[in-house]
Amino acid sequence: MTISRRVFVKSGGLALVSLGLDPLFVNRAAYALRSSTQSPAVLVCLFQRGAVDGLNMIVPHGDPLYYQERPRIAIPAKDLIDLDGHFGLHPSLAPLKSLWDNKSLAAIHAVGSPDSTRSHFDAQDYMESGTPGMKSTSDGWLNRYCRHDQEHADTAFRAVAFGPQLPRILAGTSPALAIDDLQAFGLRVPQEGARDKLTRAFEELYDGAATGLLASSSQEGFAAIQILKRVDPAQYQPANGAAYPPGRFGRSMLQIAQLIKAGVGLEIAFADLGGWDTHVNQGSSEGQLAVRLRELGLGLAAFAQDLGEGMRNVVVLTMSEFGRTIAENGNSGTDHGHATAMLALGGAVNGGKVLGRWPGLDPASRFEGRDVAVTTDFRDLFGEILARHLGAADLAPVFPGFSPSPQRFPGAIRT
Amino acid sequence: MRSRLLTVWLVLAVPAALGAQGLTPRDSALHALNRLAYGPRPGEVDSVARVGVMRWIEQQLAFERVPDVRLAQRERDFKLLDLGREELAQRYGDALRQRREMQREMAQSGDTTRPRGAGPMREFRELGGELQQLAVVRAALSERQLREVMVDFWANHFNVFVGKGADRFLTPSYIEETIRPNALGRFEELLSATAKSPAMLFYLDNAQSVAPGASPPRRQPRAPRGLNENYARELLELHTLGVDGGYTQQDVIAVARIFTGWSIDRPQRGAGFAFHEWAHDHGEKQVLGVSIREGGMDEGIRLLKLLANEHATMHHVSRKLCARFVSDDPPDGCVDAAVDAWHRTNGDIRAVLRAIFTSPDFWAPQALRAKVKTPLEFVVSAVRAAGAEPDSTLRLAQVVARLGQPLYLQPAPTGSPETQAQWVNSGALLGRMNAAVALAAGRLPGASVDLDEVVPATENYEALVDAVNARILAGTMSPHTRSVILEQLADVKDPMQARMLAIGLALGGPEFQRQ
Q1: What is the pLDDT of residues B235-249, one digit of tens each?
Q2: B338 and B379 inside one domain
């Protein structure tokens, strides 16, 4: 096999460094160039499983109650990265400050579910099904979006979840790929020639004998393998000196960037990251939560840097099933709460702002007397991004029983 | 006497009907082994055909009389089966406390590197993992195949999620004590066993449901408040009547009120069912137009009996059984036959199944190979077809999970649908091909295989492919598949390599994905 390497240079053009140029490779490069000029809108959803403490991520430092309620775990003013005089970023999110300043990063505070459950299991389920309070919904809202929005062609890579299983949010009848690792997708045969031969053999078997869903799914799979062969994930080099953090999350972000750049028709990407359930010793400027946020911040910053101009058509949205209690608990941690904060990043984002109506920490305005109240239904935020970024024509089938309304949109996308 | 006559009729009359459908004894034996069992082992199609397929089905229905010595021996490897709910709960509590302690120490020392995959939780997780592997081992090895299929069916119908809090230690006893003993018993008893099981009471939050305004006699720091409708709704929608079963939101609320007080005694100690009088709503209730008079816990028992005998329940559950055994969208004929049997026998699950297995729809040509295997069915049937032996580690269950079916880890109460769309996607299909090739190469994690026993290597590749067809695909290989495999073998010199390739392609190919 020829050893080839693509280097995207600052100008956005394409430079090729290749040993043994072959015609196939030139074709591949031409394809990459063509597709980079007509890149469609992409939504990347990141699920912070375990309920992130929104109050220590986007800190309401202007509210004295914040410091009263959290004597041991509040982020001291000296460590905070102030955003607007009232809110500040956790110091671990420092890599995101420049994105805030160039107005491609926004935070949406006091967002959450109308359902009051404090069970991780139920709340994640509701956030992914998009039908809070309704347990019997079998598919996820991202899948329903794909099913009802036929404008975008169903390519093999239209909707991809990074992980071993398809998450609830992408479950349903519309095709979606679950990829644990791009480099391992396909048949696992070490030697390339043997792998190609075996792949062709299976392809022929299914071409000739499969029917129905077995036939269409196998076609999608073999198409994806062909595309990945062209993309050549093993040889990927992030652009602009971007350095992804080590670990699963960084690798997922890198591979999402790679798929976007490869122009394979990616529209929806999903990844999750755990470790947010900080009941005990969650820490303040340093500690458990700080470590998790650092990984998140580094991963997002590397992604934005890697895509460069490509971020124009990309929105990254973080989400988490609920927030945590305003007051710290007896173990220097926080318990399950209600509203939390979400981040939106990308060229289309109405950035440099903390969006959503802030209900304050005053006991009278709290949910059930203890938690941040929800002032933005998560479906209004998700709906806004689907409508204004991806161009979804009709949100009714995506969020059954709910009508996301432009009047209630938090304004996360520039109009 | 009646049942003996019935059996005689089955053994004599049904084969004639099969002949009329154009099925040979081998066809019908394969079909029965695909649906009532996890696929044939080498030679098993012939042995079932020899016994007579209807006789074999009767044996499977009367599973208590089928010896299962080998499985019983293997079950001894599973420590989980020696531990009760209480002990599991205790071990889980200990692991949790130790983990918190470790986190506290780490936070204090400023050490933020979290050791992955290590720590006190690991041992408990491994023990918990036995639950999944046990399901795989039983499916692969049990001679009482239909019973294992039905345990899988009911565990899915009455789904609980092993990842939710106390269900981490309540699920093993749910499978052993609630599902398995009732899998071929009476539906009403199965339903009532699930309603009282700590695992279900916790999973669907009924343990938290109390009459509005009621409070416990002794003050508790986190005493539950108010009605929780979760179990009530799923009981009607999923377990019994079905979503179109004709109930209203008012019925859901009334059912929730009836079940107030059905709870668990100290779940963190693994204790069992408890009825809390203080939590019960003593008012009058109306469900489906029937008045349920005040009667404490007895109200729930009466309600379950009522629901088990509703026509909507019989239809909903029978249709789901037919979707499992006949086809994803089953014809009315077999559903009606099942419902009739249910009426006649007060919900004897064996009688309902017998009605399905003797209905013409079950044996119709369009039902043959109409269903795509689930990941569990695929992995277990491949292991059986290749004469492989599953080990007692978690690895084979992990293969099933990677193909899309992590066992007991379906968070939604719906469980998995009995239809192919759930299982077939491109990534999962490629995963099946990889698993097939790995099994043929003797590299599938968790399974050891001796292919010499099944298909001896030979330099005559035509003969090799014919043997793979006969022994592993039970004669279902299409001419197209045969020619593709032969083409692939053309430039393979080593007969061992050729055998591996032929078996890998056969198990990973389209024929073997169907049943």
Answers
A1: 999 999 998 899 998
A2: no
